[in-house]
Amino acid sequence: MALLEIHNLDVHYGAIQALRGVSVSVEQGKIVTMLGANGAGKSTTLRAVSGLIRPTRGEVRFDGKPIHNLPPHRIVEMGISHVPEGRGIFPGFTVEENLQAGAYVRKMSHGEFERERGRVTKLFPVLKERLAQPAGTLSGGEQQMLAIARALLSKPRLLLLDEPSLGLAPLIVQVIFRIIREINQTGTTILLVEQNIHMALNAAHEGYVLEAGSVVMKDEATKLAANDDVRKAYLGVG
Ligand code: ATP
Questions:
Q1: Ligand 1 residue neighbourhood (C-beta within 6 Å)
Q2: What is the CATH number of domain 2-79+157-234?
Q3: How do the residues of the chain divide into helix, strand and coil, expressed in percent and rounded to 5?
Q4: Hey, is 10 helix, strand or coil?
């Protein structure tokens, strides 16, 4: 059984149909990426998993349990954490306060929080030096790190990452992807939406290609990276 099972999902925004029968399966321990042009429905799929929008048809199962009718906070409690495009950090709060907000659903004691914060900031040492700094004054790369760190403080089994490399310099993108692999290697399953398809296919085990709200291809990431259609359409090769 897959950890996350998205089955035959339709999503509408008013009269606009954003997803048409999308099915995606994410095995425990894997990194799965969703590729596709702007507007293909990638972010919408993540929003449907984290309960930010309700599907009009189909179902989402996490660890075998249906979650598509649950409110977002219940879904976080069950172990799914979403880092949205644009990061969603609280700019006026300090780094420390943003991290506390991430841990909120776990109702940790102070000691537990300190331990978890220590574990997470090991991945992002730059945040440890900036705990008292307002989050809005961090660089773009640091803000992305904070958004991921905050999500990890809710101790997710599944992390949903929406465009983590967006707007970042190439060197920082490398750092973010190294950290994504580390997070996965320490046992967190990841569903990743990325415009940087080269990096995404390099990091992921499997990939799905979405077009106009439907899945048009799915395969092992290495096979997608070698596929002529994918190379032409998304990697600018050939
Ligand atoms: P991008 O990389 O540009 O974010 P995407 O693949 O993530 O693209 P979505 O953001 O999921 O695509 O959008 C899918 C479709 O749903 C698009 O046609 C988009 O215009 C539409 N859509 C997304 N959000 C809304 C909204 N809040 N209201 C109305 N339509 C929306």
A1: 13, 16, 18, 36, 38-44
A2: 3.40.50.300
A3: 40, 25, 35
A4: strand
3-state secondary structure of 1: coil
- Ligand 1 midpoint to CA 9 (Å): 15
The reported pTM is: 0.94
| Torsion, Cα of 210, 164, 202, 192 (10° steps) | -40
Q: Which of 24, 7, 18, 10 is nearest to 40 (CA)?
A: 18
Look at ligand 1, atom 20, and give the residue with the nearest C-alpha.
39
Q: What pLDDT, in 10s, does the model give residues 143-185?
A: 999 999 999 999 999 999 999 999 898 999 999 999 999 999 9
- Cα atoms in the 13 Å half-sphere on the side-chain side of 102: 32
